[in-house]
Amino acid sequence: MKIKFIFLISFLFFSNITLEKPMFWGKNGHRATGEIAEKHLTKKTRKCIDKILKGQSLAFVSTFADEIKSDKKFNKYYSWHYINMDFDKTYATSKKNPQGDLVTGIKKCISVLKDKKSSEEDKEFFLKMLVHFIGDLHQPMHIGRREDKGGNTIQVQWFGKGTNLHRVWDENMIEEWDMSYIELADNAKDLSKKQIQAIQKGTIVEWVDEVHELTKKVYKSVKVGENLRYRYSYKYFGTVRTQLQKGGIRLAKVLNDIFD
Question: What is the pTM of this model?
Answer without folding.
Answer: 0.90
